[in-house]
Amino acid sequence: MSWSRIARRIRVPLGFLFAALFLLLARPSWLSLAMGGVVATGGVWLRAAASGHVRKNAELTTTGPYAYTRNPLYLGSVLIACGFAVASRSWIVFLICLALFLAIYLPVIRSEEQFLRSQFVGFSEYCERVPRLIPRLRPAPGASPGSFSRALYLQHREYNAALGTAAMLGALVAKLLWLQR
What we know:
Blueprint: H1 3-25, H2 30-51, H3 72-88, H4 91-119, H5 123-129, H6 150-155, H7 159-179
């Protein structure tokens, strides 16, 4: 079994394990919580916007956030993780986030791109116009803005990212209040 397949299977359980470690290592301040919360909220927003455009495995999505980056869902996850790292005020948390991204998400992204290349004729051309992760400043030439679908957002259950982010930030607030006693 390839590492990308293993990484795909373990990324969610590993996320829950990391959450526990994150809460243990975090040393938040009100300022770090505010700054990290803003960054994480940007990631939640990006994931929500992307999920309302994508029809997974049914069509090549090039509208909305997909006109700026091929992987807005993963970019949103990276922003959420960066927000948590800022909120935690822990270099160890930041380094763990970086290691998890390099070991788990990069292989998964590459594997998914191989799959998309085999499924959609226009994927290689799309790759030439739209960067893998770091977004363009303007939509790709010829990109349609498309329209956000609330039904797709709900179908993908992307609200779970918002709930999880709120829960983690809430746990950091609780830890900060407990530390200040």
